[in-house]
Amino acid sequence: MPYREIIIPDSMRPIVERAGYVPAVKFGDTLYCAGQVGRTPELDVIQDPEQQFISAWENLDRVLAAGGCSFEDVVEMTTYHMGMSQHMPLFREVKNRVFPKGLCAWTCIGVSELAHPGLLVEIKCVAVRQTYSE
What pTM value is reported for the model? Predict the structure, then answer.
C-alpha cells in the first residue's frame, strides 16, 4: 500500500511556515508538486520577467529533486499566467531552455491574479518516478 510523504526542500521551509502549504506530496511513485513561482529564497518576487521565469523553473526543479524526480519524470503540467499574451513568447523561450519538449501533457491558463502582486507565472506538475525492470 503506497504511503503519503510530504516533500519540503530545505530552501523552502520558510514557505511552509509562512504560507502553510507544502511544495509537494509523494504518493507511491507519483509526486504532486504545488505551483512554483519566481521568487528569491527570502520569498521576494523577482521583478524581471525572464529572471522570474527562470527562478520558477529552478524552484520546480528543486521540488522535483527533493521528491526523487526530474523534469523527465513530469507527465502533466499546468501553468498559470498573468499577462499571457504579453509574456508567453518569453515564457516559452525559457521553458524550452530548461524543460525538454514533448515530455508531458501541458495546459496553460491565463488568470487575472496570482498569490502575490508582481508574479507572472505559477507552474505546477505531476511527476511519476520511472522505474525500469528487465
Answer: 0.92
